[in-house]
Amino acid sequence: MPTEIRIEGNSPYLLPHVDHVSAMAHGENVDLIMYVALPGHADLEQVYVQLGPSAADDLLAQLSRAVAETKKDRSKP
C-alpha cells in the first residue's frame, strides 16, 4: 500500500532532493517515477505522478529547453 505524503502550505512545493527519475507508459498515460529524499525518511522514496499525454509532451518540451539552457550557460567563459 502506498505511503501517504502530506503536502502542506502554499505552492510551489519543494522536494528536497530527487536522486533519479524514470518514465513508463501506463495505458493511455505516462507514469513519472521520482526517487526522492524526504524529511524523516532514511531511504529514498518512490513518488509516482501520472501524466496525460499532453502534460507529458509539455514536460518533455520544457525539460529539453531547460537542459539546453543549462548546457549553454556552462559553455560560457
Q: What is the H/E order?
A: EEEH
- Report the C-alpha radius of gyration, rounded: 15 Å
Q: Indicate the overall shape.
A: globular
User: What is the terminal-to-terminal distance?
Assistant: 50 Å
The largest beta-sheet arranges its strands as 1-2-3
How would a crystallographer describe the biggest sheet?
A: 3 strands, antiparallel
Percent of residues in β-strands: 25-35%
Walk me through the structure.
The chain has 77 residues and is an alpha+beta fold. The protein has a domain at 21-70. Helices cover 30% and strands 34% of the residues. The protein is built from one helix and three strands; from the N terminus they run βββα. The protein has one helix at 53-75, and strands spanning 17-26, 29-37, 45-51. It has a three-stranded antiparallel β-sheet with strand order 1-2-3. The longest helix has 23 residues, at 53-75. It is globular. It starts with 16 loop residues before the first strand and ends with a helix. The mean pLDDT is 86.
Key structural traits:
77 residues; alpha+beta; 3-stranded antiparallel sheet
Please sum up the structure shown.
The chain is α+β, with helices and mostly antiparallel strands.
Topology:
Elements: E1 17-26, E2 29-37, E3 45-51, H1 53-75
